[in-house]
Amino acid sequence: MGSVWLSACTIVDVPYRAYDGVELPLSQLALVKGDFYYRKDWLNSYVDAVRFQRVDHHAIENSRAWDEVLMQPGLRELEVYYSWDMGARIGLAPALANYASSRETVSRTLKFRAEPGKTYSVKAEPVFSGNPGDIASLDYVDFWVEDSEGRIVLSREDGRFQSDQ
After folding, report:
1. Rounded CA separation 110/127 (Å)
2. At 111, which helix (H) or strand (E)?
């Protein structure tokens, strides 16, 4: 009975399936993970994350629920955004996620060639005009993509925000 209880409590994180058709084996797909970042203020610690908004024509509903995305190999468009952990202010989280995902300074469409059986990680670095602990002073976020070997697949320059100034 104890083993049944333990197996019932196991949490399995299933990646979002961002492709049409029959389910394919992992060896024929590319897995993309959003990176996590730790932020600390005087009293609290937060975990910010890269979230997925869209893969090609597949809009991802409830984007805060998915840390990983499965997609077919080839040249893909991956729309991502930088999401802040607001701690105990749960009521603000969905509104801030929607706001962040629509701001071009913190969201980006990344284009890169994904290979079957490979794992990729979308990285991000927020750029601040003031104190890095103050998210209100955020200017923009740089994004880039690395494979599981740490090789850069899409550079910071290619994922950087470009203002129309």
Report:
1. 18
2. strand 107-114
95 Cβ neighbours under 8 A, 6+ residues apart: none
> Which tokens sit at 147?
């494979």
CA distance 26 to 89: 37
Nearest to 135 by CA among 24, 23, 41, 43: 41
Give the H/E segment covering residue 147: strand 138-147
| Tokens encoding 159 | 């994922």
Q: Are strands 68-71 and 16-17 parallel, antiparallel or unpaired?
A: parallel
* pLDDT at position 93 over 70: no
Q: What is each CA distance from 62 to 66, 97, 147, in whole angstroms?
A: 8, 9, 25
Pairing relationship of beta strands 30-34 and 119-128 according to DSSP bridges: parallel
Q: What pLDDT digit, counting tens, does each position of 27-70 carry?
A: 999 999 999 887 776 777 777 889 999 999 999 988 888 899 99
The pTM of the full predicted model, rounded to 2 decimals, is: 0.78
pLDDT computed for residue 135 by the predictor: 65
Task: Break the chain into its structural domains and give their ranges.
Answer: 33-154
Residue pair 55/70 in contact by the 8 Å Cβ criterion: no
Scanning the structure block, which residue is given the tokens 């962040």?
100
